[in-house]
Amino acid sequence: MRYSNDMQPVITLTSGPVNAYPDVLRGLGRVVLYDYDPAFQLFYEELVAKTQKVMGLSTRPLIMQGEPVLGLEAAAASLIATEDTVLNLASGVYGKGFGYWAARYTGNELHEIEVPYNEAIDPQAVAEMLRQHPEISVVCACHHDTPSGTINPINEIGAIVAEHGAYLIVDAVSSFGGMQTSPDACKADLYVTGPNKCLGAPPGLTMVGVSDRAWTKMKANERAPRASMLSILDWENAWSHKEPFPFTPSVAELNGYDVALDLYLEEGPENVWARHDLTARATRAGIKAMGLELWAADETIASPTTTTIRTPDGLDEQAIRDEARARYGVVFSSGRGETAGKLTRIGHMGPTAQPIYAIAGLTAYAGALNALGRKVDAGAGLAAAMAVIDAAN
Ligand SMILES: *Cc1c(COP(=O)(O)O)cnc(C)c1O
């Protein structure tokens, strides 16, 4: 049989947005409270406290009412002042993209370290750049550049930036919740993440960890947005029921997000990270055993939340995804920008970070290749993936 495009997919194995946990979907169905109702204000206060616990923060985080691009753009607009000199780190499409925002807000030339999009940033190159340019005052980094499926050594980079004394903005949207990472561990001043990747909730919110000195800097920045959808400052006191919200919060999204945090805490973060890691390792083992190539130049930088497969020579990447969907009802992600056409992504995020989805993903990917005439040994791939899964039990 073939699944047509007007049918819902059977399994969505994308790298965000991802299918939400069933309990989260039920949470979205809770009553939509009036934002000035004391019950809602209490709920919001508790939700901020729960977010703080989940993010391992010593300061109170912020919840912004829009999917994470809102938080990322707001971070650039709020923290980067005209007099700042910015170093942007680009190992992929998101890292590169942040540089365009940074360039908009700094009055100085933007410095950038850019590596091929299948490699990671070398912390020593960051140290060298900071030595050459002592005036650099803000550094921007993407932890997991999702369209590449590669991880940057963010804690090492953070330590170097902290030693230099610059502020650090981190995009951790697609790593947080799926692996061990926290704002304090990488010494981030603004640490931006969201519920719609590894926490298994729908897109619609951003969580931002803010250091004390980042608050001070943003308040001193005359051009930091205020009375604006892009404002971080407007939300500083929104956690407290004593202050009104700057505008109506996304009540239903917050309801779903609350359940996602409960699930994460109940399962235990270590257990959640472990099944992301296991699913990714099983997938990588299967890809290699079928004689295919991982996109990441080195497996040590391959993401535990997304596996990227280099498009085999002579094949059209979109045709692979189309075939996987039509034959198996399985949806994968493409590359983006620079990586579009060059790779296919199998996401392991939230509910799909389960070893059985490694088997499903490999089957659909191999089946698509075989259908397109690029013969691979699917059995060898599945056996390799199962060996990884079995070894973990
Ligand atoms: C998903 C994601 C975002 C949010 O951006 P969208 O493309 O709108 O989903 C930001 N940064 C990274 C690294 C992401 O993976």
TrEMBL record:
Pfam families: Aminotran_5
Family: Belongs to the class-V pyridoxal-phosphate-dependent aminotransferase family.
InterPro entries recorded: Aminotrans_V_dom (IPR000192), SP_NH2Trfase/AEP_transaminase (IPR024169)
Identification of the protein by name: Alanine--glyoxylate aminotransferase family protein
GO function terms (MF aspect): transaminase activity
Zinc-finger as UniProt keyword: no
Cofactor requirements of the protein: pyridoxal 5'-phosphate
Domain (Aminotransferase class V) ranges: 102-335
Upper taxonomic lineage: Bacteria, Pseudomonadati, Pseudomonadota, Alphaproteobacteria, Hyphomicrobiales
Keyword presence, Disulfide bond: no
Keywords noted in UniProt: Aminotransferase, Pyridoxal phosphate, Transferase
